[in-house]
Write a structure and sequence with these properties.
- 19% of the residues lie in helices and 32% in strands.
- The chain is built from 9 helices and 36 strands.
- Helix 1 packs parallel to helix 8.
- The chain starts with 16 loop residues before the first strand and ends in a 7-residue tail after the last helix.
- The protein binds flavin-adenine dinucleotide and FE2/S2 (inorganic) cluster.
């Protein structure tokens, strides 16, 4: 993700600007003390905050002001205009807050100011255990401290790494455009300073909800006052002959992505099995690495069920224009080493060429196979704990399971969305936000999770933003110019707006988010 230009734009707020330049409900980009500053007006109040999103550097001035917040156009993070606080993921760090002085008919930005309120939780469990250290787990752990919880917090993760930027693993990191330093969400010192006991390489093997104890893979047990389950999902595995060849890779973890990168260094051709978001992002990234890429997809059009026919076609054409070759309506039948005469013991030679044979007999030579055919929620532990499960862990609007004191968030949680009914999604922003909401609810906030789901996906120069939760049988209408990659596709069930997918219309996607929240209809420009 490219950072915005660091050149300062707009007026110098230190020198003063006429107050009427900023009208009620509007924002103005300028600068002060060498930094980009956003001034916003609500009634007679003026607010000044840093203008650059702390997630990937999105330009907040191009976002949307809603009440006393601004939403980032790139991935919908939210900041409080009064304090600069990052109040909704994916941004985790606050932006600066500036003092504004009115003198006559002008206002001046006079310096930075800390307006963050000290918070005290309504209730404080004796201790909190978070199972899983990914998007939801990491966001929950930090939220507990932000909310003023002072008790013990233990975050237990089976992964060898502390929480990291998983979406980047199929995008710029895999493409070679993002260094590994960008991948951890926080340095290890952060957890130490926040007094979060963050365990890696450790699984929770059992939860006893009666004695309120968890058992860890290293044999220890740990008591909890409240518990959050965020065990995420794992890739669905191929089940065909040759699926165990060392050339066959999956992508969920940082180690997986590193493994693909290592293999891609010596590879000329790759076959991606699955034309899903992850499969297609892998195809894009491997093309960036100059590999010849073939994608095998079982449907006749990639992503049609989620994005609809028009955007599905645009995604397909974009990939084709960049040289990706598609084999649609096909499934893989077997994977084998290229030379039939090669003894089976050589199967471990990861450098040998292999062949992916499709169900119609087509043979695709390649050096690397990446499988992206969906994920399954990790609900085994929840099931063994006796939690209610039905395509995910069932939670109420406060993200609490049927066992009081045990909450669930992220890819495993199936919650009652106020618009779409009970759903489970696999989106980064949803997982982080559910972690944040669950954390507050473990502290007695009683806050329902009501924000519309949001995800993004990148394919070469095509950046898709999707807000809401549509169904494959929703009616779609297209507004804009598909060819120019400036378009929104609006999904409706009957007359009810269910989702909007946008390309090149980031602000419009934010407006659609507000319409969904308010139960209003939405008209694209
Ligand atoms: C390559 C890739 C790209 C993606 N890109 C996007 C994107 O562009 N946009 C988007 O919206 N979403 C994207 N996603 C999806 C997004 O990353 C997930 O929805 C999100 O990570 C889910 O968060 P989570 O906390 O529920 O699970 P995870 O982030 O998977 O974290 C769960 C953690 O729990 C740990 N765990 C599991 N069982 C146990 C146990 N018993 N004990 C201890 N720890 C355990 C796991 O090791 C894991 O670290 C992508 C996913 C992948 C894999
Ligand atoms: S850059 Fe702002 S939310 Fe991602």
């Amino acid at each position: 993700m490219a950072e915005e230009s660091s050149e300062l734009e707009g007026p110098d707020f230190e020198k003063g600007v006429e107050t009427e330049t900023v009208t009620d409900g509007e924002m103005l980009l300028g600068h002060a003390f060498g930094e980009a500053v956003l001034v916003a007006r609500r009634g007679d109040n003026l607010f000044g905050i840093g203008a650059t999103c702390t997630h990937y550097g999105g330009p907040l001035a191009k976002g949307l002001m809603v009440d006393c917040t601004v939403r980032c156009p790139w991935h919908h993070a939210r900041f409080d205009l009064r304090t600069g606080e990052a109040i909704a993921a994916p941004a985790l760090n606050d932006v600066a807050c500036y003092n504004i002085e009115k003198r006559g008919n002008r206002f001046f930005v006079t310096g930075k100011i800390d307006k963050k309120p000290a918070r005290t939780p309504a209730t404080a469990p004796a201790s909190i255990v978070i199972v899983g250290a990914g998007a939801a787990g990491g966001a929950a752990a930090e939220t507990l401290r932000r909310e003023g919880y002072g008790g013990p917090v233990t975050m237990i993760g089976a992964d060898e790494f502390l929480p990291y930027d998983r979406p980047n693993l199929s995008k710029d990191y895999l493409a070679g455009n993002a260094p590994e330093e960008w991948i951890p969400l926080r340095p290890s010192e952060f957890y130490r300073d926040q007094r979060i006991d963050a365990l890696t390489n450790t699984s929770v093997t059992a939860i006893n909800s009666k004695t309120k104890q968890v058992t860890l893979s290293d044999g220890r047990s740990l008591g909890y006052g409240a518990l959050l389950l965020t065990t995420g999902a794992e890739p669905v595995r191929l089940k065909i002959p040759g699926d165990d060849l060392p050339h066959v890779c999956y992508l969920r973890t940082l180690s997986d992505s590193r493994r693909i990168i290592e293999k891609a260094k010596n590879a000329k051709r790759a076959v991606v099995i699955g034309a899903s978001f992850i499969g297609l992002e892998v195809a894009w990234s491997l093309r960036e690495r100059k590999l010849e890429v073939h994608v095998v997809g079982k449907h006749s059009l990639p992503l049609e069920k989620i994005l609809g026919r028009d955007l599905g076609t645009l995604v397909l054409q974009t990939h084709e224009a960049h040289g990706v070759k598609f084999h649609l309506g096909r499934t893989p039948a077997k994977v084998e080493v290229a030379s039939a005469s090669q003894p089976i013991s050589d199967r471990q030679d990861a450098d040998s060429t292999i062949i992916v044979q499709l169900d119609d007999g087509t043979k695709l030579d390649c050096d690397l196979v990446v499988v992206g055919i969906g994920v399954r929620p990790n609900t085994k532990l929840a099931e063994e704990t006796g939690l209610a499960i039905d395509n995910g862990v069932l939670v109420n609007e406060y993200l609490e399971t049927n066992v009081p004191g045990i909450f669930a968030a992220g890819d495993i949680a199936r919650w009652p969305d106020p618009r779409a009914g009970r759903i489970r999604v696999e989106h980064w922003v949803v997982a982080q936000r559910q972690g944040q909401t669950a954390a507050r609810n473990m502290l007695g906030a009683h806050e329902p999770f009501v924000v519309p789901p949001f995800f993004w996906s990148n394919h070469f120069d095509l950046h898709v933003h999707y807000v809401g939760h549509g169904n494959s049988d929703d009616r779609t209408s297209v507004s804009g110019d598909l060819k120019a990659k400036n378009v929104s596709v609006i999904f409706r069930s009957g007359d009810k707006l269910t989702a909007v997918a946008s390309v090149g219309r980031d602000r419009e996607n934010l407006q659609a988010e507000v319409a969904l929240e308010r139960g209003e209809d939405f008209r694209a420009s």
